[in-house]
UniProtKB/TrEMBL annotation:
Residues 1027-1050 are annotated as: Disordered. It catalyses: ATP + H2O = ADP + phosphate + H(+). It is a single-pass membrane protein. PROSITE patterns: AAA. One of its GO terms (molecular function) is ATP binding. It is found in: Mitochondrion inner membrane. InterPro entries: AAA+_ATPase, AAA_lid_BCS1, ATPase_AAA_core, ATPase_AAA_CS, BCS1_N, Mitochondrial_chaperone_BCS1, P-loop_NTPase, TPR-like_helical_dom_sf. Keywords: ATP-binding, Hydrolase, Membrane, Mitochondrion, Mitochondrion inner membrane, Nucleotide-binding, Transmembrane, Transmembrane helix. Residues 619-794 form the BCS1 N-terminal domain. This is AAA+ ATPase domain-containing protein.
Amino acid sequence: HRDRSPAVESKEELTNAQWQALIALHRTLLHEHHDFFLASNHPAASTVLRKLAEKYAMPARMWRYGIHSFLELLRNQLPGWLDHMLNFIHIAYPMITLLLESVPSHEAMWMECLGDLARYRMAIEGNNMRHREVWSGVARYWYNKVADKNPGIGRIQHHLAILARPYFLQELFYYSKSLISIQPFLSTRESILLLFNPLLDPARPVSGRYPPLLTAFVCAHGFLFTRGKINSFLLSADQFLSSLDKYMGRIGAVFREQGVYIASSNYAAIFDFGQSDAIIPRMLDPEVLQETPSQARFESSRRFWESHLSLEQDVLSQRDGPRSEDDQFSSSIQVLSFASHLASSTLRIILGRIGDKNVLPSVHLSLAFLWSMALVPTSMTYIEADVPWVQIASFLDTLVQPDMDMSKVEDEQFPSDETGSSRQLPEDFLIRGQAWSQLYYPEHFFDVMADKEERSIELPSVVVSRTRRCLWLGVRIASFKRWIRYDSEQKVFSPTLFAYELDNAAREHNPLEGLSRPEALSSNDTPMAESQLKESYYLQFLRVIQQTANSLPLMTLACSPAGELAGVNSTPVGAVQLEPVSGHDGSSSFSTKIMKVGRYTVAGLHRHIASLDLKTLLWALGILGAFSGKISWILSLRRYLMTSVEIDGTDDSYKHLSKWMEKNVDSLHDGRLQGSSSATWDFDYGRPDKNTKFKFQPHTKSRLFWHRGHVFYLYRKDMDGETSQESSSLTVVVLWPSRQPIINLLEEAEREYASSIKSFVPIYSPRPKEERKWSHLPPWVEVNLVPARRLNTVVMKIDDREKFLKSLEEFFAPDSLKWYTERCIPYRMGFLFSGPPGTGKTSLVAATATHFNLCIYRVSLKDESLSENDFMRLSAKTRPGSILLLEDIDAAGISREESGQREGDNPREGSRISLSCLLNVIDGIGAPEARIVIMTTNHPERLDPALTRKGRVDVKIEMGLASSSQIQDMFLMNFAPSSEKDSDQQLAELAEKFSRIIPPESYPPADIQGYLMQYKTCPENAVRDAEEWVKQNKPQGTSNSQTLGNGEHQ
């Protein structure tokens, strides 16, 4: 059946009855296929019958003729026959789901079919972005399930690339992975042009939605893929490389994922995106690679590298020679050469970010790629000259810690000591399936995998495993003794002399040298002769540093986001060490092993020195040589007598120390001050303070001061010219060999800050939407300090207050955490406050925070700018001993009764938070502990039972309308005697009379409080006018019964 009806052939428009008949026909065809699959998979079926489905590719035929062709026919008739298309999708989707459950032998095919159906459903949604996102997520779910079972099929990566739109960096990653997969999908060559053509067309303006750096990166790959103009490629590559370092520092943790996309796309370009004339893909034929065992391949590669000592010059020479602006890429080896330079230049910049854990995923992927290429020597010879081996050795050296167990790193076996799903890193799932990754992972490494949702969770242990993996790859690459070496006794990596020869050769063939840049991108390039002079003086500069600072350990301190100090004591490392190296011809020479010069590595030091002009470098060389003795003395003084700590502007300690400096400005003996004033409020008398004084703080960025017998030096550093707190850092240096004086200073600052706000409750709200994309900023921002409130001022039943207090006191008891831990119960507690507006729900939250000295993190689920990713990140960043206040909890999800479905997981209008996301935040596997979650709602009847079940909501409190006793208490609190002259007895009589006038269970406490506020000092008048107020304000009715307990109605 191929839908070749005369009406279709003649392009005639079908009637509604004809469409219905076609749908019925295809429904029958699907049922026939279903019956066939059930019969062929029955236990009693013969062997011939069992093999029929596979022999004739029946699942693919069913999809092609039973579903896909008809969907395409309907799609071409849109939007006229949208209802028919929806009807048929709703017929096909359950049928494929049924086949997935009943015929699991073809589950990969069924999953892909479900993904394709969801993609069709997404495509017809038009401008309804919410529904498009839902169906896009469904399609992505099924494609990822197929990719888990068949990671090497490029067709699935192609589908994921389509779903990645409009995020073009992710698109480029999946498209390029599709082309260099173990089974590449050739149709991707046409689809990827939909990504490149709009960016490469000079007549179309480039959207400013994405960073120019990423746009330049994708454009550079577009020129490589389409074999466009070489000069245009170089301009895009130069724009990308010149901004990469600052971009990585700005986006922070986001680069963990983006760095993998960037590195993987670069290596796909080295493969020339799998073009028919590409060189390297032919060397990685899966059938050929599988014929040789891994150990035999390693021994064969080692013998190759020992016997082949020459450098492949053909690839480097492709970048030489005069070029005009219209010259284009003419061959695959030319594309390989320029792509190799781009990939290695990117890696060189990434390796320069020493200590930045966010670059480790990209470094891990790059080392895995180099290790795999080294096992296929004929492929490695094409790219080895461009690889920054010197920087790789330096970077690996910084990963080695004194207390690290290197036995697993030095073992030849793959470092998979973790068990179960925890042994895979998040980037492992992005690496596998690519042609070069066949040589990296052990055979059964992916037999047990984490769920898709858990793979991107970055636990602290992930950094340890990733570091161990990088070091293991470094040791394995060093085992060839060609590019880097590893000293197992000293635990040190160092580049070989051949690595320096390769580095020199790559610099001689740098295509960006002398690049004719547009005026906006041009820089003052140093002439070639001057560059050679600087290289000579640079080596002399290093020799002098060796004489003055050799084998010098430097101690630094780091301040974590939690405010804890951690000492990082590096091993005694030489600024420069010269060690003998045997040359390839048997002669001896010296290799420079550069490990650290202060806080600079070889890449950082070279970059800073290379930025100097020749005259400045000569002055530095002369001064350093003349005062080498004094420099040694100064460095020794720093080594033995100075300790420093750098505090990031996003850390609480920065705020504590800034406030301490403001308070103790007179003791800092700094005459340069910065003054400010602001109106303040006198809370004792409830009026503006007429005695407002100026506030002063030190104005300069650096200062010396004396504190408790120690000399301190403080320095504030601003990032990128910004002076806001979050873009700055404070460095505190003390002239003392111990960190204790700094700890004492920070503890004193913290105590003074806590004392200054003890009468207030800190309120935190989500950072504005436009700022949430910057991962280096904390997601919460302190918006207010509200005055403390006593718990007995909240109008509620006495029994409820006592039970509520008892539950919290038990939770915060000293031995409570031990009790929860011993019983393997998560240490957290949930509350639900329900009731009409004005009944005191928010007031009870503030009073609870005051009573137990907690801060409040407030989130409104009616905030339409709050996405689920934002919500999850906000929840993860709440501190222990805090309240997470979720207001308007009924705005998230829908109840199952209301929806009529088994699973209610769609967000309500006005909220982007689904029920499943909300449940994960409250008590999911990644939910923080040692905090309480308080949810408020005006409509408890709308809540899903899953949200209010036992264990998730421990205590329910319904804040009802004011009772007679509560009305009386409010009257007494409002008119409490301010002096002994007032009569308590008279006030009590007035309160009782007032409570008889106001009908009980009829008004919210807030309404009564608002009425009483009109008579602040006249209780008699309040009683006199009460009847009139009742007449003017109609009672609201009787509240529901109050509930309190572990989720049970009393």
